[in-house]
Amino acid sequence: MSTIALTKENFDEVVAGNDFVLIDFWASWCGPCRQFAPVFEAASERHPDLVFAKVDTEDQQELAAAFEIRSIPTLMIVREKVAIFAQPGALPEAALEDVIGQARKLDMDEVRKSVAEQQAGAAE
Questions:
Q1: How far apart are CA 78 and CA 21, in angstroms?
Q2: 7, 16, 25, 122: which has the highest count of C-beta atoms within 10 A?
Q3: Which CDD domains did the record assign (predicted)?
């Protein structure tokens, strides 16, 4: 499966409409981004059940700002509308596969419970 270009117009639809989305925040002038691109694309071929998307931070500055992207490339994983992973840096293939594997194994009921507890604690 090829990657999807995310924009502020389609972001909510793509993330809400899919249970597992990997997002690569990148820019064309960024050397590490260009190094990571084929790794990300190859992973999309190995995992056709997942959605692989890219945000061009130059073109989509509002999205990059909304997620407080300070360094690119940044990989973010959203499962069931919850951001469960975000890390800057170009991951090598083995590390990307490891992150995907760990994200697949997460118990999303436990994640949502933890998020709810954190939000309740912050509200006090």
A1: 5
A2: 25
A3: TRX_family (cd02947)
Domains in the chain, start-ordered, CATH in brackets? 4-123 (3.40.30.10)
Q: Quote the CA–CA distance of 64 and 107 in Å, as a whole number.
A: 28
Q: Which of 21, 30, 63, 69 is catalytic?
A: 30
30 in catalytic set = yes
Which of the following is catalytic: 22, 23, 33, 100? Answer: 33
Look at the pTM and tell me if it is higher than 0.85.
yes
Whether 33 is a known active-site residue: answer: yes
